């Protein structure tokens, strides 16, 4: 008995290939079919086309509804010319606890009207809850309370330049203007 026969291998009648004894033509066809289906399924799952890959190119396009109108922004006189403060209105009770942004920029004074610029979070996440004005003979204090709109919303940490316009009981004159606890000069 040859070594091949002892190992359970048998020579194919039409070539030198060896196959296990007891494996029929049908068994080999089934195995070959399963292997072919597995190869096709693997290839189909791993093939990526240009349409399947996400576009990760950064964009600077701003949707039209978020673009301020020509009349809305207020450039800061004497500033670098790049900062533009967009007006924002008081919304009232918001979901989060309010905070007063520190530091502000005096944009304009016209009689009893004062416009102050400041930085706050993005409009989708934050709003102005209230504006507090305290006037004395020597000082005017303007505090803007900013709060979150929705505590469950995930927000990006980007600051936007915004402004508020307030009416005073008397012209600012020589009084010191404070915003968020710090004096503003202008």
For the sheet with most strands, the description reads: 5 strands, mixed
Which outline best applies?
rod-shaped
Q: What is the N-to-C succession of helices and strands?
A: HEEHEEEEEEEEE
Contiguous low-pLDDT stretches (5 residues minimum) are 58-71
Total helical elements: 2
By secondary-structure content and strand pairing, the structural class works out as alpha+beta
What fraction of residues sit in β-strands? 25-35%
Task: Provide keyphrases for this structure.
186 residues; alpha+beta; 34% strand; rod-shaped
Structural commentary:
The chain has 186 residues and is α+β, with helices and mostly antiparallel strands. The chain has helices at residues 3-6, 25-46, and strands spanning 9-11, 18-20, 74-75, 84-87, 105-110, 113-121, 126-135, 139-148, 159-167, 176-179, 182-184. The strands form 3 sheets. A 5-stranded mixed sheet has the order 3-4-9-6-5, with no helix packed on it. A 4-stranded mixed sheet has the order 7-8-10-11, with no helix packed on it. Strands 1-2 form a two-stranded antiparallel sheet. A hairpin with a 2-residue loop joins strand 5 and strand 6 (113-121). Residues 58-71 have low confidence and may be disordered.
